[in-house]
Amino acid sequence: MTAAGNGSELALEGIAGKAAFTGKTVEHIQGIQSESMGKWGIKIQNVSKSFEVSGRERIQAIKDINLWIDPGEFVCLVGPSGCGKSTLLNIIAGLEQPDSGTVESCPAEGHGGVSRGNRLLIFQESALFPWLTVFDNVAYGLKLRHTPKDKCVRLVDSYLELVGLSHFKKAYIHQLSGGMKQRVALARALVLDPEILLMDEPFAALDIKTRKDMYQLLLKVWKETGKTILFITHNVDEALLLSSRVVVMSSRPGLIKREYRLAMGYPRIMESASLQKIRSEILQAFADNPASEVQGGTPDETMDE
Amino acid sequence: MKPWMNRVIFYAGLLVLWILIGELEIWPDYFVPTPFGVWQSIQDGLSDCSFFIGTLASLKRIGIGYGISAVAGVILGIITGRNRFLDDTLGSLLTGLQTLPSICWLPLAILWFGLNESAMIFVVVMGALLAITTVTVSGVKTITPIYIKAGKNMGANGFKLLTTVLIPAALPAIVSGLKQGWFYAWRALMASELLYVSVGLGQLLMMGRELNDMNRVIAVMLVLIFIGWLFDRMLFANLETAIRRRWGYEN
Question: What pTM does this model have?
Fold first, then answer.
């Protein structure tokens, strides 16, 4: 199969998949909750963070990051490994404290409300709990929040349906494939109605076919839930196929170099002239950095990651 | 051939060999007893209830001693594993103390508690506690950090994080710690029962020696092996397998 062939197939599958998936699920979910759907943006201001390495030396992981993400936006952050992408994500998720700078959730216009700082992370490797079933993994956060049992069951069921895993409720994590694990992770985050979904190279460990399915699923989820998404990747094509805005970062120290707004609709194909133009620009920007792992190529060519 | 068939043949062969050695009368039977004499002794022990009384007395001691070490060891292990300072200090002390054979605590225990049950239970506790604690510490320290991150990210903190993430994540290690602890407790108890004679399996064993009753000695040893096997195979092995399977360490 040629790369081009795959690209158009992806596009076609995208349409078919979407038509088949939408329907009952959407109403179902909207009936249960609509509190913060797409209503939160994130304002990252002057965030810097450095680490101590082997005693004395300090490494500036990220420096003066300023990034405003609008409510409902799908932003992809592209950069070489070691550019502090994950650090930034951890800071936004509240798992690490920045040395300076602030991260705030800001509501969309006409929507008040107090931010609960509910920003959920999806990791590259499965962070699901092997001691719980699929159902209990998704229900985990709801139980922490003392959600009434019947509401909890309804929510978990509807999100498992959304990611297409209703039949695997009772399975244990080690029984699932890599792609299924990431679907569960997606449901586990979405069920908590996050203000923003933070994704740390969530598909990097998956094979091409699964990754394409996940692209479709993620775009479907984004469309149906209207969630604000910040997605990290070092795969330029992934960023171009998925996001409404691509932000390019450099490494050591991690700085935002430039960004591209992508107005075109979905599904996209890599062959389109406008995407190709942006793609070569981004790759050019990293070309002078030999250590850069930023990859071009269609998802097919990036198998060896 | 199936493993259990191999085993049956092996043990049958061993028994036949034993009978043959007895039949050949190379050694007097107070030196090398016959299986029939040992069997008789087991029956005697069971019918006059001395085995039951001894077993119950020993199990009671190990129940109390092991119970204390299991609860204290797991708690201490989790706290030490999560606290850098405690791990650097207490952790190294525990590892150091573990090199001391637990029976060496007996003289100290007798001076502290006198010649009584408490002294024996103390020795059992010292035997099991250190093992359970050190294994739990290493289990907690090797928890995949991503589980903790994910738990925190979803809103688990403090006690909730402990009960819903840390303990389940460390459970495979905790169970192997408990298993090791059981071995240490069992050995420590037998050693102290042999040295300090009161009702118990150790005392039954010593009684055999004092009466020059080799059948009795072997019979009690078989009872000890049986009890050890029962706990190891029936309890810990099944528990360990079930947990490893659920956690996805097998397959």
Answer: 0.79
CA distances from A160 to A29, A138, A172, A211, A264 (A): 11, 8, 14, 19, 30
Exposure of B160 in the CB half-sphere (CA atoms within 13 A): 15
d(CA B219, CA B227): 13
Distances (CA, A) of B150 to A84, A93, A152, A243, B60: 19, 10, 19, 24, 43
Chain B within 8 Å of A130 (Cβ-Cβ)? Answer: yes
Strands A100-107 and A40-53: antiparallel
Token pair for A213: 């399915």
Which of A94, A123, A173 has the CB atom closest to B248's CB atom? A173
| DSSP code for A254 | B
- Quick check: A146 contacting B, CB < 8 Å? no
Non-local (6+) Cβ contacts of A281 within 8 A are A260
In this complex, how many residue pairs, one in chain A and one in chain B, have their CB atoms less than 8 Å apart? 53
DSSP state of B231: I
Q: Which residue of B has its CA nearest to A133?
A: B246
CB A59 within 8 A of CB A263: no
Does residue A177 sit at the B interface (CB-CB below 8 Å)? no
CA–CA separation, B152 and A273 (whole Å): 43
Cβ neighbors of B98 (< 8 A, separation 6 or more) are B130, B131, B134
Which of A234, A232, A216 is CA-nearest to residue A224?
A: A216
> Amino acid identity, residue B36?
F
pLDDT tens digits in sequence order for chain A, 305 residues long: 333 434 333 333 333 333 334 334 444 444 444 444 447 888 888 888 888 877 777 888 888 888 888 888 899 998 877 678 888 889 998 888 899 888 888 877 766 666 677 889 898 888 999 999 999 999 999 999 888 999 999 999 999 998 889 899 999 998 898 889 999 999 999 998 888 899 998 998 888 889 889 999 999 888 888 888 999 988 888 888 888 899 888 776 677 778 888 888 878 888 788 888 888 888 887 766 655 556 654 444 433 33
* Cβ pair B155:A173 closer than 8 A: no
Give the nearest partner residue to A144 out of B146, B160, B171, using CB atoms. B160
Sequence-distant (6+) residues with CB within 8 A of B114 are: none
Judge: A144–B153 Cβ closer than 8 Å, yes or no.
no
- Other C-beta atoms within 10 Å of A26: how many? 16
Residues in chain A: 305
Q: Which of A167, A168, A136, A172 is nearest to A152 (CA)?
A: A136
Query: What is d(CA A249, CA A67) in angstroms, rounded to the nearest whole number?
Result: 11
